Amino acid sequence: MNRNPHVAVVGATGAVGIEMIKTLERRNFPVGKLTLLASARSVGKPLTYRGQTLSVQELKRDSFQGIDLALFSAGGSISKEFAPLAVQDGCVVVDNSSVFRMDANVPLVVPEVNAEDVKWHQGIIANPNCTTAITLLALYPLHHAFFVKRIFASSYQAVSGTGAKAIEELKRQVRQVVLSETVSREVYPHQIAFNVLPHVDSFLPTGYTKEEMKMENEGRKIMHHPTFKASVTCVRVPVYRAHSVAVSAEFEKPVTVEAAREVLRRAPGLDVIDDPAKCEYPLPLYLAEKDNCAVGRLRKDCALDNGLCFWVSGDQLLKGAALNAVQIAEELLK
Fold this sequence. Notes:
Blueprint: E1 6-10, H1 15-26, E2 33-38, E3 46-49, E4 52-55, E5 57-58, E6 69-72, H2 76-88, E7 92-95, H3 111-114, E8 124-126, H4 130-146, E9 148-157, H5 164-178, H6 210-223, E10 229-236, E11 243-251, H7 257-265, E12 270-272, H8 284-287, E13 293-300, E14 307-314, H9 318-333
Parallel strand pairs: 1-2, 1-6, 2-5, 6-7, 7-8, 9-10, 12-13
Antiparallel strand pairs: 3-4, 9-11, 11-14, 13-14
Helix pairs in contact: 1-9, 4-6, 4-9
């Protein structure tokens, strides 16, 4: 790839698209030229990059001529239609949707875990599910040391995972409740303010949701661990940004809290915040807009053999989406 690639952000006006633009700038990614693409209704919208104002252009079938790298975050149907067209035009695509993640010909990458998988791409590289990426930053180093067999987990997912409209919905509902007004809802099937919804993504015949199965399916592919099992309950909580996950993991090898903490201290992209006596543990409020995820509440699991419990939090728009995509792009340049 060109050392100073012409980069396109597809879905540039969405919550993740805006973070992608900021992340390219913040990490000094060597962008030769930046093109911002979105649907017709966003055309002409001004966005700033490195002090310049750029106008959003309409995404069309011929938008990728001369573009080296495209970061997609515009939903599955857009990725399905336009990513192959971009590849035909000689562009490498890093896709944030779920469309290509389980495709055997598409690497699914968390750079701290399986950066080397970038090498065998055939034009498209998939960005994983946000909850999975955040969980694996803590789970994979432990797996590397102690070999994980299975996990039981519950997620506490911020509304930013649903997009910009969901953030507005929570703000509006909080205001409506405080002012004793009728609460209106458009995005979620129930009020999200002052509530939690055990419902993220659509339900499968098994009773699990698609989101809940991503942890097992994507986890297996990213960790190269085909027998990994994960029983997960995904829960939407009234938090603006940053997801948290409570994990109980069972390992092949005996694991102590001290040994686990040592492993996690050395893990890339992860901070250890674990001093319960001082009320110190990872909090989504303070991890919002931070690149690193954080792990804490480490303790021996009293219901599993060779078990360890931990709590991990991370910014869903960054490590869960935009940052991970830009890190994949950085691996491509290497």
